[in-house]
Amino acid sequence: MMSELKKHKFSDLYSMSSGISSKPEQAGHGSPFLTFSDVFNNYFVPDSLTNLMDTSEKEQETYSIKKGDIFLTRTSETIDELGMSCVALKDYPNATYSGFVKRLRPLQDDVTYEKYMGFYLRSRFFRKTMTNNAVLTLRASLNEEIYSYLHLYLPDYKTQKNVGDFLLLLNEKIALNNRINAELEAMAKTLYDYWFVQFDFPNEEGKPYKTSGGAMVWNEELKREIPEGWEVDKLDKVVSIVRGASPRPIDDYLSDEGVNWIKISDATESNNRFIVATKQFIIQEGVSKSRFLKPNTLILSNSASPAIPRIVKIESCVHDGWLIIDKYKDGLTIEYLYHYFDNERPNILNLGNGSIFKNLKTEYLKEYKMVIPPKSILDQFMPIFKDLSDKVYINTLENQQLATLRDWLLPMLMNGQVVVE
Description:
Layout: E1 6-9, H1 10-13, E2 14-18, E3 27-34, H2 36-41, E4 52-53, H3 57-62, E5 70-73, E6 75-76, E7 85-87, E8 96-97, E9 101-106, H4 114-120, H5 124-133, E10 140-141, H6 144-149, E11 151-154, H7 157-196, E12 216-219, E13 224-227, E14 231-234, H8 235-238, E15 240-243, E16 254-255, E17 259-262, H9 265-268, E18 274-275, E19 280-282, H10 284-287, E20 291-293, E21 297-301, E22 309-312, E23 316-318, E24 322-326, H11 334-349, E25 352-353, E26 359-360, H12 362-367, E27 369-372, H13 375-415
Parallel strand pairs: 3-8, 17-23, 18-22
Antiparallel strand pairs: 1-11, 2-9, 3-4, 5-7, 5-9, 6-10, 12-13, 14-27, 15-24, 16-19, 17-19, 20-23, 21-22, 21-24, 25-26
């Protein structure tokens, strides 16, 4: 039997408050602080708030965070990113929240269930309601007027509780996989640094090469020492670097289905090395005017947030804000090159130019000098690297499947087509 959805005026169920207007000198010390990024990137307020703000007792009372509070991003460059929600599942003593978000505090008990609301407010149904009521001027902004127009269509409290508790289990598994991936990535990064930055890869006796007195030679191009026998060459002699392409005007070619279309945000919104899904797609007519990628392609962001490496695991297209890295020198692999670019990013960023956004000049990147380990060293290291990379990929793929299942189930759970006992 399908549950009946009841229409509520959002403003009848929650009171809206603005966040704290803090000064730069308050940041970095003091009490826990909920940032715009925390809200934008999480369905629920993180268990521990790592950002700090020096706030008074009065400010902590005025801008408090309590169980059931909803936080919405107040301002954004685009309507699609406006009003992204994040729900508190517990009280956060002494914590305050950013002035770039709005707090919605429940006015009634047993009408909305916080775990359910965390998923409902991120559903396509509610996101469409939000964007339809927003007005884009120079910058999208959530205000009292927009809020007063919004309605919620909710099942009874018991149904909300069953659905919310069930969906949270899926989210907790996703969060667990993310924590495992973070540990695996940290291990891989440490190993890369140990072998290829500190040059303490195992020598013939299995001892750390440089620390054990391995021969080092001065390289005039790099102005530093490198292990004897290692090469240095320009990047374009080691890999092929090709810029993506964009059909114009791009909006005429984007759709809800088609070939995956990778945006810079697909890299910046996640620390994961792999791209296994995209939010947008390009129609077939636009594929030939773009750059088509086969799975297992390394790309490097070239604009907005440049020099971020990502491994694409799906057939997709990329625009001219991406650089495609392929045709590697013998012995190099996609796993090694991912960590190479990730490690070199601070240095590569110095090649950027641009006023509003930093952009990489491809011709400068091609001239960038790369230290190339001997194939024998790479062959020792690659099995370790690939094993860690494969584990990260398995967890990433499982998370994508869980997120797809969650989003597919949500509307059916909301209207009672599927019931959680």
